[in-house]
Design goal:
Helix content: 55-70%
Strand content: under 5%
Number of strands: 2
Order of helices and strands: HHHHHEEHHHH
Distance between the termini: 48 Å
Strand order of the largest sheet: 1-2
Shape: elongated
Radius of gyration: 22 Å
Length: about 180
């Protein structure tokens, strides 16, 4: 199961996306994710599909490798689709007992399923084409403007990349009795 989680893994291959600046990939992924939450028509999902297919082809990462990551969210996907399918009010299409499937439920469930799938695959494209160090460096550079208002972006970056660095800094300033020097 752990091997099926592709989000956060890096897939080393030479491609246009692998060579792209990590800040561009972070920004592009953010825009893609936000656009998915505003998508409310088939045309929007067709555009998202074309963008995703283009990004996957540019990445040169095998599609089967990316789809493997969907196994991790299969249960969440089934629950989400089921709730939307059976609990969305509207014009009934099929009814058995107290359960009914509506036209609006089918539409909402379909869009929700696509949204979740595209979120995982879109995020995977970024992480599969960018090393973790490149991602944290790109994030640090992107958030560098926060230094001007007193947010220690470099310290946050250092902690993210080297989680035990804060502990080592404290140890350097403590005596053998645990008191600060």
């Amino acid at each position: 199961m752990i091997r099926d989680i592709t989000l956060g893994q890096y897939y080393p291959v030479d491609s246009v996306l692998h060579r792209m600046d990590p800040r561009t990939k972070l920004f592009g992924t953010l825009v893609f994710i936000v656009s998915l939450f505003f998508a409310n028509s088939i045309a929007c999902y067709v555009a998202a599909t074309l963008f995703l297919v283009t990004a996957i082809r540019m990445s040169k990462v095998p599609f089967s490798f990316m789809v493997r990551g969907l196994k991790a969210i299969l249960f969440l996907l089934l629950i989400s689709v089921s709730f939307n399918l059976f609990l969305t009010p509207g014009t009934p299409v099929v009814q058995f007992g107290i359960f009914k499937i509506t036209q609006e439920g089918i539409r909402t469930a379909g869009f929700m399923a696509l949204r979740l799938i595209y979120l995982v695959i879109g995020s995977s494209v970024m992480t599969l084409t960018t090393t973790p160090n490149e991602l944290t460096d790109g994030l640090e550079k992107s958030l560098g403007f926060l230094n001007k208002v007193g947010v220690p972006v470099h310290d946050v970056h250092r902690t993210a990349v080297h989680p035990d660095s804060g502990r080592r800094d404290r140890q350097d300033h403590e005596g053998t009795d645990g008191e600060r020097r």
